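Project channel, design review

CF: Before we commit to the Polaribacter filamentus constructs, I'd like one complete example in the thread so the newer folks can see what an input/output pair looks like. Taking Prenyltransferase.
RD: sounds good, go ahead.
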Amino acid sequence: MRFLKNILNFYLNSSIHVAIAVYSFVRITEMYFKLPPNENLDYFIFCGTITGYNFVKYAGVAKLHHKSLTNDLKIIQIFSFLCFLAMCYYGCLIDFKTLLLSLPLALLTVLYAVPFLSGFAKNLREISYLKIIVVAFVWTGFTVLIPLFDAGKEGTLSAVFYAIQRFLLVIVLILPFDIRDMKFDAISLQTIPKKIGIDSTKKLGVALLVFSLVLEFMSSTEITVKSPFMLFFFLMIIFLMRAKINQSKYYSSFWVESLPIVWLLFLLGFHNF
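CF: and here is what came back for Prenyltransferase:
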């Protein structure tokens, strides 16, 4: 049992789970727009997610405690480096213009963890209200804009609606994390739950979900995508409304981040059966 728990912790701490969630969003975009799976691009984004998330989470720790790193963190460092090499490999196989478009998003990821002005001690993560916007924008960029740009379908009205919807959905996915982190965040870091309260945050999340539902019906008429979205929509509401400060260890980090994966499974089920 302890072995399985260690495997689960490594799976979460090494950002494999969040990378699968991002990969699921990419595949959902491909299915919505009837794009053939671009494995090189999909794997580039998957490996890049692991590299980027682990850089954000562990770069400061590794810098300060390089000689006293735990074995688990050393393993994650090695794993992240291998994923970085894989990202570079797949990056060489995708279209050069697509690769160029990913660079500003990658830069935002770096600035999210590293102070970006001389004498300015804050990174993007520590600037009030900007954290959630940056994360949602980067997720939307990699899971909607880049796949559509690579396929030459980025200029349609449906693509605009879909990108806005994805941005809103990612914001709602982040809210349970922000609620959980209220007791850990610095007083100066004004997240949405800290500013307007937990109840108002949940109401805001539901409002964003309803707007995303409207966008869903505006951008698509196919029952094979609407029905899975409705299931995903209600699951999002349930997990948002049940979020609290003292939530279980895996509530947000596993269950909430599993929702894009579940949505993809719903889509695959409706398409194949």
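RD: helpful, thanks. The chain has twelve helices and no strands.
CF: The radius of gyration is 19 Å.
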